[in-house]
Fold this protein.
Amino acid sequence: MTSTAKKLGRRFQLGRVRPGDGSALRDYRPWQLFSRSLFFLDLADSHAYAVDVRYLADAKSRRQHERGAGKSPAALYRDGVQVARSNLPATFPVPGGVIEVATSAFGLKRLRFVAGDGSEHALRPHRRSQEGLRARFGQRYPRASAVVGAVSLVVLLVALAVSLLHGAEALTRIPLVAAHVGTFTSPIHLPTWAKIAMGGAGILAGVERASRLRFNRLIDSVAS
């Protein structure tokens, strides 16, 4: 994405931000592991900021947000008080820069503080959140964490390769395409159980990568 497109996208997202309702930041509960993300940021203005992301905000909640009522998928808190909220993807203005938030089908794909000079800084996840637990696992068991991350990547790469082969086969079945380039038969044809297993593995891999805020438009979209 070009810098001009980024600026236009950021301007549009900033225009969607609504004032917060002044409510207090609620505690993170264990049953919210896959439905909520909570991150913190301390800035030089001596205030503590938090970004609360709710994945299960339904269409009704989103419409209510646009009218200035109801819950929002993403909210910004300062010193524990809600000061802004927005639909996703979101860009929240804060002193010295902005906080960018974007999600995928499996969780977060971006949540970062972008300073005025363009530098990017990660936020601190709540220790009991999915992202916090994954970060602690990586700190305590770095080798095992690296292996898990590598396996997730391999799973998605294999799924991508299979999808490309099947896509090429389907494309060359079109008479007009076949007349110009010939037909192609994928060398890989998986039985039903293997397709189900690969789909499940792809979902787990997508969730694992989202817990580390790893996202690649081509690779991670395969699992969704």
Summary: The first helix runs from residue 3 to 15. Residues 3-125 form one domain. The CA atoms of residues 91 and 100 lie 5 Å apart. DSSP finds six helices and ten strands in the chain.
